[in-house]
Write a structure and sequence with these properties.
The chain is mainly alpha-helical. The protein has 14 helices and two strands, in the order ββαααααααααααααα. Strands 1-2 form a two-stranded antiparallel sheet.
Length: about 270
């Protein structure tokens, strides 16, 4: 493996994500993968000591030490590191810079919430859920305004994995705390998608306060069905019956899988807040 400096014998441990790295490129990869892990903790002596002793990057270690002793900002410190290694592409650098600036002056609680949101937006649903769960369990008295947002986003994450029964529980918690109509629609949608028609109608009958919301949901779903019926994918599905009728089962199911994958991608893009 070609890397800047030496490949370390003793790794540098990134506590926030419980990962050990053995080269500066691996650390840059972590920064690009999840910029929200970048905090002032990286400006402490352990990183510069590791760069000097394990990676034999004396020049870089000295630059970073001088910056830290001079009281530089986190952005200046990290950008000096990234400039030296020259690993991240311009788009990754832009994202890292923006996130470092957005994290300036916010609490650790808010930063961790932003980290979960970043994972959610980038389709890393299980990691996002883990971040949100950790935030809620470690800080049971989390700000009242933040808790329903976390519940709502956890609902999105589970819905994105088609776990609608679990998603409905988190949407319900968020709705009970805020009373927001949009959250109520998401709550009913997740219920609608995992209950039988009979059980769903029974649920609405027992919760008359949600009747108007259910009508809005049905109108939205009807429109979605209409859009699908007029879509290219539906036309292709109809045409695929020719494969099936001719006994070409293999081609039929290959095309079905491809269309379903595309529909799933479109759905996931539509549910991210």
């Amino acid at each position: 493996m070609i890397c800047t400096g030496r490949y370390a014998e003793t790794p540098y441990y990134v506590n926030s994500v419980c990962v050990s790295v053995y080269s500066v490129e691996e650390l840059c990869y972590l920064f690009a993968l999840n910029p929200f892990i970048i905090t002032k903790d990286f400006m402490d002596a352990p990183l510069t000591d590791w760069l000097r002793n394990e990676c034999e990057l004396e020049e870089l270690a000295k630059k970073l030490t001088d910056l830290r002793l001079r009281g530089c900002s986190l952005g200046e410190f990290i950008n000096t590191f990234l400039d030296y290694v020259n690993y991240c592409d311009p788009e990754e650098r832009k994202i890292i810079d923006e996130i470092i600036k957005s994290n300036s002056g916010i609490s650790d609680l808010e930063r961790r919430k932003h980290q979960g949101d970043y994972l959610l937006r980038n389709s890393m649903y299980e990691a996002a859920i883990e971040e949100y769960e950790g935030l809620l369990s470690e800080l049971p008295d989390v700000d009242a305004k933040l808790r329903p947002i976390i519940y709502h986003n956890m609902g999105y994450a589970y819905a994105s994995m088609f776990m609608f029964d679990v998603a409905s529980k988190y949407f319900r918690r968020s709705y009970e705390m805020t009373g927001l109509v949009d959250t109520a629609i998401q709550y009913l949608a997740s219920m609608r998608l995992h209950l039988s028609d009979e059980k769903y109608l029974s649920f609405i009958a027992k919760n008359p306060e949600l009747h108007d919301v259910s009508l809005r949901l049905e109108a939205t779903m009807k429109k979605a069905v209409g859009n699908f019926e007029a879509s290219r994918e539906n036309t292709m599905l109809s045409a695929l019956n020719i494969y099936k009728d001719e006994g070409n089962v293999s081609s039929y199911y290959e095309e079905i899988d491809r269309i379903i994958l595309k529909l799933k991608e479109n759905y996931l893009n539509s549910v991210i807040d």
